What does this fold into?
Amino acid sequence: MNVSALVWAVTLTAMIAVLLADLFIIGRRPHEPSVRESSLWVGFYVVLALLFGVVLWLTAGPSVAGQFYTGWLTEYSLSVDNLFVFVIIMARFGVPRQYQQKVLLVGILLALVMRGGFIAAGAALISQFSWVFYIFGAFLIYTAVNLARQGEPDEDEFSENVLIRWSRKALPLSRDFDGARMTTREDGRRLFTPMLIVMIAIGTTDLIFALDSIPAIFGITQEPYLVFTANVFALMGLRQLYFLLGGLLDRLIYLSYGLAVVLGFIGVKLVLEALADNNLPFINGGEHVGWAPHIPIWLSLTVILGTLAVATAASLVKSSRDRRRELAEARR
It folds into this structure.
């Protein structure tokens, strides 16, 4: 793709306008959104992403649109995995439900800024050093194995990172929340509220998740514009998805295994592409590996969709059986 500065500017302006409108709505009336409200917003962002893909199809061709859809789906599924940790953070810090929207939105804004930096750095590395695919691929395979072993995190496994611990010790903090504010005044002193620590926790957690998701989408497409827009569309509806799924997250017990398969598949795909473009002297004498196949976008999309569908269906079936068993035992 040859994306002009004008297209980038229009895209960024539209994205900022939507986020500002979202922030204005939350700031005007902090509340816990209903299932209907969350469904409408999630549907709006999904339709927006689908329409964006149609525009890409008409202007740049089906291959580019396919890369966007596959990248968006990958990032969206990995973002759902983030929600498990967000639930734990909200519970750990006791954030009131009506203020969780603001926490999530600020965390998403921080994530967009940080991921933008990761994308720029990743694109620069890939354009200069094709062997970076070996590193990305190996890292994704390693992450996939760990995810399959550990499963989804629970509250007992959550540990505060270095930045959160430092913030607790170094910053003057109040004991209680003051609405959604990050500062408050007590006894004439200006203090930070626990809301600031929650913001730091959400932002740094998403930064850690970006270490997985950015290499994953570079395994789908190396076009920075597609990588960035796929991340934007995946993150923009994440806040409403958090409230929409609610307790359903606990029922997606096999999602981590499905995501492990997706990450492993993309990791292998990256390694194969690195072999096909190989120029490292200690691998095959610095020559391209002719037998390394190119995995087309349609196959990647099929594998990702199929894996997520199977993991979701299996999770819901298993949780339904467990629930029926618990009810039967309770009646005895």
User: Anything to note?
Assistant: Residues 177 and 194 are 6 Å apart (CA to CA). The longest helix spans residues 297-331.
